[in-house]
Automatic annotation (TrEMBL):
Mg(2+) 3 binds at residues 28, 73, 205. Gene3D superfamilies: PurM-like C-terminal domain, PurM-like, N-terminal domain. ATP binds at residues 119-120, 144, 207. One of its GO terms (molecular function) is thiamine-phosphate kinase activity. Reaction mechanism of ThiL seems to utilize a direct, inline transfer of the gamma-phosphate of ATP to TMP rather than a phosphorylated enzyme intermediate. This is Thiamine-monophosphate kinase. GO terms for biological process: thiamine biosynthetic process; thiamine diphosphate biosynthetic process. Residues 148-295 form the PurM-like C-terminal domain. Substrate binds at residues 52, 256, 311. Its EC number is 2.7.4.16. Residues 26-136 form the PurM-like N-terminal domain.
């Protein structure tokens, strides 16, 4: 199979069919029709075997996650997903692997109205880079810089499930189906992100851990925050681990949650209940303060020492 065959057979028609793509896969560039009343939101993520996923990860799950992490970035700014490009580096052409990867990527793309419009394939260590493009009305994008003292700090879903799955896999244990799904097939909160446009004052997606990612909001907004650890939403298995060990680093710093963390004025708290769905709760976990820094208070009133805030590729 040649590179051209690979693109034609697995990726040329992947995802939704959109009328705003005059020219997609197969030419030197894609041509995209951006509506005059929208701004373009763009993000790119790279996943590397042995760093972001185990080399023997299910290819369908990898295809899903490779796009999900980018869609989560769009969700954090309240953008509507539209297009994606893919740069795929493969050690060899494996039709079974490619079929599974394309299914996982294509199913999630179609579910969110995303069309794959271009990219590149090459030979080398297994690496996946996907750039996502979304649309948002001018002035409606939610950035990290809008949090104000008195705002509530909120998160979607539950925290620490993916981190617990990773811990168990690293220890040679088999995670439950629920935990494995949270690690390998995160659900980007695209609908919630769009509903938060106009309600959230600042927002970020949780990829590297709550403490570190919330820290980006605090730095960009020039504020601090107080969190109540007892309020953190935990899944049943994560709650058991925290209750038995007192290890709050699991929900605070393990990463890979791909939930949304956002702030909103306290006067609008009543509007939060309308945002929750049966499979995605919205929880108030703290408050923005004028005093800088992040303080995490344990149920007994003690402050939890934040010696690790989240994942960093280049941290010592």
């Amino acid at each position: 199979m040649s590179e051209r065959d690979l693109i034609r057979d697995y990726f040329a028609a992947l995802g939704a069919r959109r009328a705003d793509v005059p020219c997609g896969v197969g030419d030197d560039c894609a041509l995209l029709a951006v509506p005059p009343d929208r701004q373009l939101a763009v993000s790119i993520d790279t996943l590397v075997a042995g760093v972001h996923f185990f080399a023997d990860c299910d290819p369908q799950a990898l295809g899903h996650k490779s796009l999900a992490v980018g869609l989560s970035d769009l969700a954090s700014m309240g953008a509507e997903p539209a297009w994606a490009t893919l740069a795929l580096t493969l050690p060899e052409i494996d039709p079974d692997w490619l079929g599974g990867f394309a299914r996982g990527l294509g199913d999630l793309a179609a579910a969110h109205g995303v069309q794959l419009v271009g990219g590149d394939t090459t030979r080398g260590p297994l690496t996946v880079s996907i750039q996502v493009h979304g649309l948002v009305a001018p002035g409606q994008a939610v950035t990290r810089a809008g949090a104000r003292p008195g705002d509530l700090v909120c998160v979607s879903g539950t925290l620490g499930d993916a981190g617990l799955a990773l811990r168990q896999l690293a220890a040679g244990k088999a995670p439950s189906a629920t935990l494995r799904r949270r690690l390998e097939r995160p659900e980007p909160r695209v609908g919630l992100g769009r509903r938060l446009a106009g309600l959230a004052s600042a927002m970020i997606d949780l990829s590297d851990g709550l403490a570190g990612d919330l820290g980006h909001i605090l730095a960009a907004s020039g504020v601090g925050a107080d969190l109540e650890l007892a309020a953190l939403p935990l899944g049943p298995e994560g709650a058991t681990v925290v209750a038995e060990t007192g290890d709050w680093a699991l929900p605070l710093a393990s990463g890979d949650d791909y939930e949304l963390c956002f702030t909103t004025p306290a006067a609008r708290r009543a509007e939060l209940s309308a945002l929750a769905t049966p499979d995605c709760a919205v929880t108030v976990i703290g408050q923005i303060t004028a005093a800088p820094g992040l303080r995490c208070r344990e149920p007994n009133g003690d402050l939890w020492p934040l010696d690790r805030s989240g994942y960093d590729h280049f941290s010592t």
